[in-house]
Amino acid sequence: MEKAYMPEQPFFELSTKAYVSRLALCDRGLAQYYSFVVALDTGKSIVAVPDGTVDIVIQCSGSRPAAQVCGSVKKGTLVKFEPGLQYFGARFFPGTADELLRCPLNQFTDQRIPLGDVYGSAEELVERICTAESFGERIRLFEKFHEKRIRERSGVSALVLSLIDRINRAHGDIRIGELAEETGFSVRHISNLFSRTVGISPKFYSRIVRFQRCFGLLRRHDELSYANLAQDGGYYDQAHLINEFREFSLCTPAQALGACA
């Protein structure tokens, strides 16, 4: 089934070279695999934007390969990658990585935590992925690891998945009070459960979904005026749109298309 929301890190593609990606199987919680190389002559960090989910990023080359669990940031954040090295990443759909990591996802928000601190046998996984000969082989190795970890899973909360889907289908344009009325649960219960399972509040997640959709519209239709983009994206006006872009991507919409050049 097609997902209403696909979490993206556009600057991982716009600010690197040899970028490749592949969509994952939706029914397993994984959204996307990707790989990139940081240019040797780059003097800049890469902007990570809020996406409401978790990535596992593995440094595949260099003298000390390593893997990190990267939670969603809550504002545009400069992330330093080593120039000339290759990275492989696995991105989850919102609210699904807790099955693999087996702990509340709000512990990862705005954090980059070594995978070994969460999964004791991470060193073996990292070594196998780093010595793999192709992007496809790395994907197969990660999927094998993922399937083994979630074999005895308790399952993702049906309520949280329903809330995520409702926000996604509304493109983030929905009040939390509406979610409470539709589900019969209190705003407090929804917010607490969402925070543990997704890592952020449902209100903030709605902002992320709206921003990500707007960024996607901008990349596909760069001739859109700010006024039309704001209207299509659910913002009050173009000033609201620009302020949100500055907070979430450290750029204006125009600068974002040029990778903040």
UniProtKB/TrEMBL annotation:
Q: Which UniProt keywords apply?
A: DNA-binding, Transcription, Transcription regulation
Q: Which residue range or ranges hold the HTH araC/xylS-type domain?
A: 157-259
Pfam families in UniProt? DUF6597 (PF20240), HTH_18 (PF12833)
- InterPro entries, per the entry: AraC_XylS_family_regulators, DUF6597, HTH_AraC
Q: Does the keyword DNA-binding apply?
A: yes
Keyword Nucleotide-binding in the entry? The reply is no
Which PROSITE patterns would you find in this protein's record? HTH_ARAC_FAMILY_2 (PS01124)
Enumerate the PANTHER family for this protein.
HTH-TYPE TRANSCRIPTIONAL ACTIVATOR RHAS, HTH-TYPE TRANSCRIPTIONAL ACTIVATOR RHAS-RELATED
This protein's name: Helix-turn-helix domain-containing protein
- The organism is Pseudodesulfovibrio karagichevae
